[in-house]
Amino acid sequence: MAARPRRRWLPAVAMLAVLAGCAAPAPAVGPATDAAGPPSGAPAATEVNTAGIRYAETLVVYNGRSHYGDETVFREFEQATGVRIELRGGTGPELFERLRSEGADTPADVLVTTDLANLWRAEEAGLLQGVTSPTLRAQIPDQLHERDGRWWAVSTRVRVPVVSTERVPAEAVRSYADLGDPRWAGRTCLRTSSNEYNQSMVADMIAKRGPEATETLLRSWMANNPKILGSDGEMLAVMASGGCDVGLSNHYYLGRALKENPAFPVAPAWPDQDGAGAHANVSGVGVVAGSDAVPTAVALMEWLTSPPAQEEIISGSEFAANPEVPPSPHIRDWAGIKQDPIDAERAGPLLADAVAMMLAVGWT
Fold it and tell me: pLDDT for 29-83, tens place per residue?
């Protein structure tokens, strides 16, 4: 099998730190020594300081967000550093399989992908290596990165009940449990159980609520005989046309619809705001195991999580992973909702259980 091509390097530049608005310590690569580092027995993340590094000439990025239109942030990194970013797109599952089949011969340096399911599978398969830096730790809160730095969030997405503004009274839906209210029988839409967003949500529920409570909840949803649809966008269109009245969607699909048409007749029903909050998943980025361009890869990650890049990433209505960046103007009033970040450490191992439970209750 072909080995990785010999890496070429660019002269050291400091422009990225200026763009990201951060001043990193002197360049160094070594074991992390942060006091809040991984617990005893866990593999330590590699500590990387990117100020003044000598950049790799090329960085290969497997980009599972290619359909989100994020290319601008990569081109800005190129302009700031001189590094050529080679983007190779695909869905999260496709890129996982590609990395796994390529093994040590993969040309990839960085994986950008969506949803906890894809991140956890890549982590478990040993496809990502743990990294950390002062800038990453300053920009991304602890609950939004893997504890050993194998992935770091670049956005969050809330899976939230949505309701018709024409046929559902205000405050009628205030929790995930309300989707199982018998009054919504024949009036509910859900996305297929094969969707990774639903699978991750149910796995997180099993981790936090327990299997019995989660199964009871799902059975109440199925008792309402929901229409099962192929995508969140399709579901919102069906709701707007009167085909159903309540559903469950990632918030940014609705945000995009409202940006295009502020009178779009569907609204979020933020759940459990007096309790745990709304289930929040992530899209994230990690350094591919075996990459010989770790400092450059970390510099890219620092840029993607910086305020200027985060503003670009969330223009499609996602929420920023960096807490300093508010929602885009068209959904600015969604700021401050109570979110319940996915517990990746506990939910990841429960993904298979979640799928089995969804099928067992009749969620096809």
Answer: 344 333 333 333 445 799 999 998 999 999 999 999 876 667 899 999 999 999 9
| Location of structure tokens 């990839």 | 108
C-alpha 343: how far from chain center: 13
58 forms beta bridges with: 84
Q: Please compute the mean of the pLDDT values over residues 218-222 and round it to a whole number.
A: 98
Average pLDDT over residues 171-186: 98
Q: Hey, what are 55's tokens?
A: 């950049």
Q: Hey, what domains does the chain have and what are their CATH numbers?
A: 15-31+40-155+282-334 (3.40.190.10), 157-279+336-360 (3.40.190.10)
Q: How far is CA 230 from CA 156, 189, 204, 243, 348, in A?
A: 22, 10, 22, 15, 23
Angle 89-94-99 (CA atoms, 0-180°, nearest 5)? 90
Residue 164: closest CA among 259, 237, 227, 221? 237
Single pTM value for the model:
0.88
DSSP string for 173-207: --SSGGGG-GGGTT-BEEE-TTSHHHHHHHHHHHH
Tell which wins on pLDDT, 102 or 21. Answer: 102
What is the predicted pLDDT for the residue at 66? 73
Q: Is the pLDDT of residue 18 over 50?
A: no
Got the DSSP string for 99-130?
HHHHGGG---SEEEEEHHHHHHHHHHTT-EE-
In the chain the first and final C-alpha atoms are separated, in Å, by: 41
Q: Which two tokens stand for residue 227?
A: 């229409």
CA distances from 136 to 132, 196, 204, 209, 304 (A): 6, 27, 25, 31, 10
Q: List, in sequence order, every residue forming a beta bridge with 184; answer none if it has no partner.
A: none
Reduce the DSSP state of residue 83 to 3 states and report it. coil
Backbone angles phi, psi at 7, to 5 degrees: -75, 140
Identify each DSSP E strand in the chain by its residue range. 28-31, 46-49, 58-63, 84-89, 110-114, 128-129, 131-132, 152-164, 189-191, 227-229, 246-250, 266-268, 278-288, 319-320, 339-341
Q: Where does residue 102 fall: left (phi above 0), alpha (psi -120 to 50 degrees), or beta otherwise?
A: alpha
Tell me the two tokens of residue 276. Answer: 């745990």
